[in-house]
Design brief:
Strand order of the largest sheet: 1-2
Shape: globular
Structural class: mainly alpha
Radius of gyration: 25 Å
Largest sheet: 2 strands, antiparallel
Distance between the termini: 48 Å
Strand content: under 5%
Number of domains: 1
Helix content: over 70%
Length: 731
């Protein structure tokens, strides 16, 4: 049954691309509104595509340079897989394609959503959500499609008997190199997009709201177009690249660990390799089903809108639970119910993390309302309260991911802690389970900036209050989806990164065999053949214990990297935001007609400031993330690298949750006050909440989301550079 079940994967890919095209075509057929609406939407679209074009030009140079370096290491020194230069470029290319499609869709959909809101809330929701689904379906379809293509091509060109288990391990570990390009592209997209959007947002808020007292999305604000562009740059292109990389990484890690766990039984090995691919294909199909269930009625409350969204996501999740059991049964996967339990565990973990994020950041609950209350005391008490909420909010997601990891390990290993290979395969397939409904989950996240921009368009085009009420309702829903989407991305990153760390050992095995190292010498001096060694043997050989100071040094460095990286990205936002503030102030001071509404601000100048600042500032954090595993590997060896990855994962995961949730809570506390609580707009509490939101902006949209890519990138770089570490490390 292996071959028929495998067809679920390409069917899912084709279905995803087909429905993405249909949703995109349907969106373009909708009314684009009045001439002012189209002009405003045109400014946003032009600014977004200009930024993306500039970023891709920079990335092209970076990728070509690194590909040349990898080619030298692979073909000149034999220290890399011969596939790396090609798979590296392919990973970056398709990640960029997914971002491009998402941006093209989102920037066109927002004006049509605003136009539909003139007559119907259900119609506006339909356009916005299905346009978000274009991004979701393109990401998962391109991700799974690339994994299938490389699996077929590498299998075809790798010499040896197709029935040889060791050959399948080589194929699966080679496929991991695809993630290198996707990870690097994701980091640049997240960091650059985060700097862009928050610099524009801070500039618009501090001068427009605080100093001039004009509303959000007021066309008199010179930074308003840059702010709207930034919503798409950060939460569409950035989030899409982030989850594209997580999705591919989880699939590739599951394939590699499954192949290694059943290396001595090629028949069962093929089944466990096919299983995550088939589940992913089913996930795409069932995500499409969920998209069609997201509907509402006129006059729907926030509770009703959230219920309609939950109906689509939850239905897809329930269906994938049932369908994955059928897939595993048809494949006759060994320890079927344990493997299925790991898949379900991943799904449940994702739901728990999302709900915990919603509780910490939504104005419907106590934590965010508490921040709004503290805003009556001023900016200082607002910031203190928000930081406290962010710190406390780490508890449930960390416990959920910890419990999910342990349960998935135990289920897949048959509750035998000694079966590290099976247990880690369970952790990897749990990550696949969490990301199996990514098509609709990412749709709900990409929906957010579309709804936000629709509200901005309605405000700037002076549409009626009933239109603004509908777009505000959609925007409020988008705030919730954005926060839960970030929590979901962070949780999936933790499971994926853990699976990649385990995959690192399998890559080391291949590199040792290639280097002619045939035996390990674990503690006790007993030689074990590299080809037959288990994970515990490798841990013993490299002395990976907490008593080894090299491991501890790596852990401390990994923790440090997470904090330094976050500091770099937040300072980058500060520097670019300062330039934006100065420009907005200059335009207001030099042209009195802007504030009166008699003359149009120079929107293009503010867009250019964010674009140039983002391109300039994103390089150093990316270099830090990519260089850390290489430098630590050369200085401290394999044990130091494993310590680095463990420390980076632990601290980066917790720090990412803190930053994202604190920022989200700051933002929604401000919106809660703007609804009329604690004095409403222009009150002292409102002014304090704007300052809190400004502090939280780089937390939730730059540093926090970028950290989940950092921990995965370090794992992938370590995997890619395993041969260099083995050959040239000092220790």
């Amino acid at each position: 049954m292996t071959e028929p079940v495998l067809w679920l994967a390409p069917i899912g890919v084709l279905s995803g691309l087909l429905f993405a095209a249909l949703f995109f075509r349907d969106m373009l057929r909708q009314d684009a509104g009045t001439e002012p609406m189209q002009r405003i939407g045109g400014h946003v679209h032009k600014g977004a595509m200009a930024y993306l074009g500039q970023q891709y030009r920079v990335m092209l140079l970076v990728f070509l340079g690194l590909a040349a370096l990898f080619a030298l290491l692979a073909y000149g020194f034999g220290l890399q897989s011969r596939w790396l230069p090609v798979t590296f470029l392919a990973g970056g290319l398709f990640s960029a394609v997914a971002g491009y499609v998402g941006m093209q869709t989102a920037t066109r959909a927002s004006v049509r959503t605003a136009a539909a809101a003139r007559s119907s809330l259900p119609g506006a929701l339909r356009i916005a959500f299905r346009s978000g689904a274009v991004m979701g379906l393109v990401v998962v379809s391109l991700g799974l499609g690339n994994v299938l293509a490389w699996f077929a091509l590498i299998s075809w060109l790798t010499p040896g008997d197709p029935g040889d288990g060791a050959r399948m391990v080589l194929v699966a570990t080679t496929m991991l190199t695809f993630s290198m390009g996707a990870s690097l592209q994701a980091l640049f997209a997240r960091v650059g997009g985060g700097i862009y959007t928050k610099a524009a947002d801070v500039g618009a808020d501090l001068v427009g709201k605080v100093e001039k007292g004009i509303p959000e999305d007021d066309p008199r604000n010179p930074a308003v177009i840059a702010d709207n562009v930034g919503d798409n740059v950060g939460d569409v292109a950035g989030m899409g690249a982030d989850l594209f990389e997580s999705y591919c990484g989880s699939l590739l890690a599951a394939c590699a660990l499954g192949a290694a766990a059943w290396v001595h039984d090629p028949v069962l090995q093929l089944r466990v390799v096919v299983a995550p691919l088939a589940i992913a294909g089913l996930g795409i199909i069932l995500s499409i089903v969920g998209v069609f269930l997201v509907v509402t009625r006129e006059g729907a409350s926030q509770r009703d809108l959230l219920a309609s969204l939950s109906r689509g996501i939850n239905t897809s999740a329930v269906l994938i639970v049932l369908a994955s059991a059928a897939v595993l049964h048809l494949l006759q996967v060994p320890m079927m119910w344990g493997t299925w339990g790991a898949v379900v565990t991943g799904l449940v973990t994702g739901i728990v993390v999302g709900r915990a994020t919603e509780y910490a950041t939504s104005a419907s609950y106590g934590p965010t309302r508490g921040i709004a209350l503290e805003a009556e005391g001023g900016a200082a008490t607002t910031i203190i309260a928000g930081m406290g909420v962010g710190m406390q909010s780490t508890a449930i997601p960390v416990l959920a991911v910890t419990a999910g990891t342990v349960v998935a390990f135990l289920c897949a290993s048959g509750f035998d802690l000694a079966r590290l290979d099976l247990g880690l395969y369970g952790v990897a397939i749990a990550a696949v389970g969490m990301l199996s409904t990514l098509g609709i989950t990412l749709a709900s996240d990409a929906y957010g900036p579309i709804a936000d921009n629709a509200g901005g368009n309605a405000e700037m085009a002076n549409l009626g209050p009933e239109v603004r009420a509908r777009t505000d309702a959609l925007d409020a829903l988008g705030n919730t989806t954005a926060a839960t989407g970030k929590g979901f991305a962070i949780g999936s990153a933790a499971l994926t990164a853990l699976a990649l760390i385990a995959s690192y050992i399998e890559v080391l095995r291949q590199e040792m065999l290639k280097a002619g190292i045939l035996y390990l010498e674990p503690v006790g001096g007993v030689k074990v053949a590299v080809s037959q060694a288990g994970l515990a043997d490798f841990m013993a050989h490299f002395n990976v214990t907490l008593l080894n100071p090299v491991v501890l040094a790596g852990m401390f460095i990994g923790s440090m990297v997470a904090f330094v990286f976050s500091g770099m990205t937040m300072q980058a936002v500060g520097r670019t935001a300062t330039a934006m503030v100065e420009e907005v102030r200059r335009q207001f001071s030099e042209d009195d007609g802007i504030l009166r509404g008699d003359s149009e601000p120079d929107y293009a100048r503010c867009v250019a400031i964010s674009t140039v600042g983002a391109q300039r500032e994103m390089a150093l954090p990316a270099v830090l993330g990519a260089a850390a595993p290489v430098v630590v590997g050369l200085l401290l060896g394999v044990a130091g690298v494993i310590g680095l990855l463990a420390g980076g994962l632990a601290s980066g995961f917790v720090l990412a949750i803190f930053l994202s949730n604190a920022g989200g809570a700051f933002d929604n506390a401000k919106k809660y006050i703007e609804e009329g609580h604690h004095g409403g707009k222009n009150s002292r509490a409102h002014q304090a909440s704007v300052i809190g939101d400004t502090v939280g902006d780089p937390f939730k949209d730059t540093a926090g989301p970028s950290l989940n890519i950092l921990v995965k990138l370090m794992s992938i770089v370590a995997i890619v550079m395993a041969g260099v570490t083995l050959s040239y490390s000092l220790l």
